[in-house]
Amino acid sequence: MHIVVCIKQVPDTADVKIDPKTNTLIREGVASVINPFDMYAIEEAIRIKEKKGGKVTVLSMGPPQAESALREAISMGADSAVLLSDRAFAGSDTWATSYTLSMALRKLFPFQLVICGKQASDGDTAQVGPGMAAHLDLPQITYVRKIEEIADDHIVAERLLEDGTEVIRSPLPCLLTVVKEINEPRIPSLKGKLAAKKAQITVWKSADLGCDPAGLGLDGSPTKVVKIFNPPPRAGGEMLKGEPDEVVRQLVAKLKDAVVAASSV
Amino acid sequence: MTKEPITVIAEKCVGCKLCIKACPFGAIEVKDKLAVIDLARCTLCGACVEACKFGAIELDKKAVPSRDLSAYRNVWIFAEQREGKIQSITYELLGEGRKLADQLKMQLAAVLLGHEVRAKVSELTSRGADMVYVVDRPELAHFQDESYAAALIELITRHKPCIMLCGATTIGRSLVSRVAVTVKAGLTADCTGLAIDPETKNLLQTRPAFGGNIMATIITPNHRPQMATVRHKVMKEAMFEPGRTGRSVIEEIAAEILKSRTQRLKFMPEVETTMNIAEANMIVSGGRGLQAPENFSLVRDLAAVLGAGVGSSRAAVDAGWIPYSHQVGQTGKTVCPKIYMACGISGQIQHLAGMSSSDIIVAINKDPEAPIFKYATYGIVGDLFKILPLLTAEFKKVLAK
Ligand SMILES: Cc1cc2nc3c(=O)[nH]c(=O)nc-3n(C[C@H](O)[C@H](O)[C@H](O)COP(=O)(O)OP(=O)(O)OC[C@H]3O[C@@H](n4cnc5c(N)ncnc54)[C@H](O)[C@@H]3O)c2cc1C
Ligand SMILES: Nc1ncnc2c1ncn2[C@@H]1O[C@H](COP(=O)(O)O)[C@@H](O)[C@H]1O
Q1: Which ligand is nearest to the CA of B43?
Q2: Which residue of A35, A245, B203, B243 shows the fewest CB atoms closer than 10 Å?
């Protein structure tokens, strides 16, 4: 079984600090990590491989330094890695990103599964996974919290919705996006780390993928960012002081109207 | 050599570093009094162009419409229903869609997909829809990505809407991401603000990114429809207007098109919750400060009295005290209730990412230095084991009146 995992390198939020004066993000020297949800995607792919045999390819589109994310995935147990890096890809929105990645997936075919994270922690869109499925006309199961069964030609998976869990069966190949509940990502072994160091990362450019330039980067992106700004600061808070029963009375008095309004909607 | 999409005009740049401050991606450096943009990091968002007082940065945005888009008319909303019940997000979309349609002097249409849902049309027209496109088919009885996407794609191709809004729910995001790719539309995720640009009539879509630490306004100048998913609980619900009616348009779609390769085998409703936290107007959340799983009852009791949903930090989920579906934050759910009460939650950045846009935030924590207090509308420094039972009792008393 060939499984492709799509991973994105993102700034480490644990590392991101808020400047107390300006309330803006301090980004200087912020480390990059694999998007948290993608760690679960990598882990799930490796678990399937360990059970069913086959190989895991990790795929990422990003600047040259995204190579380190791919190496980390190899250290966890992925077999090979492909980086899509080309200046022509700069400025891609989710349409162009999913197009570019889907062109690479065509080149990596045959595969039985594509696994993505639910969403990336920088853009928070959750659009790239289903977008790729649309470009490739693959069936999709999003928000997967558990794989119940996987055979050569089909998969049965649990999908987490707001009000419960849906059990879905799909033929393969199929695209999944996974949530945190699905597993606990492993810590790379020493052997894995050595393999990662030695691994050859394949780099593909636009020309290698046979992309239509009109679908790439800024030109291929229907959406344009026109403005970036800081969220309005929250109005200054109030600390309630006194004995417990006193502060509780104060809080209830302050919240009562809001509670009544909120429960009447 | 082709011109870079973003360039610094050396003669105009004075090396003042304003652009460095403005850049959300840390992509600019000043070297020898000249700004240098690292194109590998730059996403061409244009924040620096706006910040530069000297007009020294040029961005080639090709913002002029290159195609005739006048054939695309009307504002559409996707009417999300589950088991035949119209979801509250749908009313929020109708409220917002109505405003946009009025500004554009266009009609507001709802798209209702499902099985035996025709009776629901009046629920949509009485809340602002001028018309409702209905596809009523057994294949659509339950949401399935492929058949729902196919139906929506078909309708968009037939009727060419100018704007298409959908809830940023699990179903919504899964569905329209597929649709937008196929019809080559721009799609903006999880918007918290929508407006019409008075000059260009483009839809200005504002959304949080980086876990709510920055906001971005996004347009789709050259493609239609302009598609967006909208965050729950941000927009006001459309009011019910007695006597208001609209047109119901029954759409026929070939069975062939509605085929789905995925198959829903069964559905297991969430047992633990009585309320989906994404839809809750009030949420009481507990964290590691609760110390043991049985103590979650303190949070549940208060939530029950308020009619609130129960949330939690990741620490509490990872400890196995409460199911993952209750986790708020970067790797859980994003919520935006009227009141969010954080009990024994420190307020780490990943937790804040999921709740910092709530209207009122209450923090109860014994550590006066806990970061959550910086975001709290009302803060109480104290022991939650004392505070919570008192709070539950006091609310019970006051709300009974
Ligand atoms: C990649 C990544 C993703 C993450 N995603 C999320 C996410 O989605 N959601 C999330 O919540 N976290 C997330 N986290 C974890 C996050 O960083 C914090 O570790 C977590 O939010 C802490 O939970 P907590 O506030 O309950 O626990 P703690 O940080 O341990 O805080 C417990 C608080 O309880 C207080 N307390 C203790 N006893 C009492 C008492 N008797 N009375 C009153 N107060 C008391 C303490 O003062 C303390 O402030 C993520 C982390 C990473 C690295
Ligand atoms: N540049 C990228 N390279 C590889 N995979 C990506 C990229 N961007 C997004 N993805 C995948 O798509 C998922 C959703 O991302 P997003 O739509 O950006 O929230 C991620 O969890 C990744 O699995």
Answers
A1: 2
A2: B243
Question: Residue B101 CA to chain centroid, in angstroms?
Answer: 20
**What band does B1 get if pLDDT is binned at 50, 70 and 90?**
very low
Ligand 1 contacts CB of residue B350 (under 6 A):
yes
pTM: 0.89
A232: its two tokens: 């309005």
The answer to whether the Cβ–Cβ distance between B43 and A166 falls below 8 Å is: no
Alpha helices (H) in chain A, listed in sequence order: 36-52, 67-76, 94-108, 128-136, 190-198, 206-209, 244-264
Q: Count CA atoms within 13 Å of residue A3 on its CB side.
A: 29
Q: How far is B33 from chain A (nearest CA, A)?
A: 19
Q: Do B259 and B362 form a contact (C-beta atoms < 8 A)?
A: no
For residue B298, give both structure tokens.
Answer: 């303190």
* Plot region of A53 (φ>0 → left; ψ -120 to 50 → alpha; else → beta): left
Residues 6+ apart with CB under 8 A from B199: none
- pLDDT at A233 > cutoff 80: no
pLDDT tens digits, one per residue of A60-99: 999 999 999 999 999 999 999 999 999 999 889 999 999 9
A16 and chain B in contact, CB less than 8 A: yes
- Judged against a pLDDT cut of 80, whether residue B40 lies above it is answered with no
CA A138–ligand 2 middle distance (angstroms): 17
The token duo for A230 is 């800081």
Mean pLDDT of A105-132: 96
How far is the alpha carbon of A253 from chain B, nearest alpha carbon, in Å?
A: 9
Closest CA to B234 of B131, B93, B354: B93
| Lookup: tokens for A261 | 């309004």
Contact list, A180 vs chain B (CB under 8 Å): 324, 327, 331-332
Do the chains contact at B43 and A90, CB–CB below 8 Å?
yes
Chain B closest CA to A113's CA: distance in Å?
14
d(CA B363, CA B381): 8
Least confident residue range of A204-218, A226-240, B254-268:
A226-240
Residue B234: Cβ-neighbour burial (10 angstroms; 0-12, 13-18, 19+) = middle
- B324: nearest CA in chain A? A181
**Which of B47, B177, B182 faces A127 most closely, judged by CB atoms?**
B177
Q: Strands, E, within B318-394: which ranges?
A: 339-343, 360-365, 378-381
Q: Is the pLDDT of residue A239 over 50?
A: yes
Atom of ligand 2 nearest to the CA of A41: 23
Q: What is the pLDDT of residue B342?
A: 98
* pLDDT tens, position by position, B73-116: 999 999 999 999 999 999 999 999 999 999 999 999 999 999 99
B281 contacts in chain A (CB < 8 Å): 262-263, 265
Average pLDDT over residues B4-10: 86
The pLDDT confidence band at residue B63, using thresholds 50, 70 and 90, is: very low
Q: What is the dihedral angle through the alpha carbons of B287, B291, B297, B299, rounded to the nearest 10 degrees?
A: -30
Please work out, in degrees rounded to the nearest 5, the angle formed at the alpha carbon of residue A42 by the alpha carbons of A170 and A196. Answer: 145
d(CA A181, CA B391) in angstroms, rounded, equals: 32
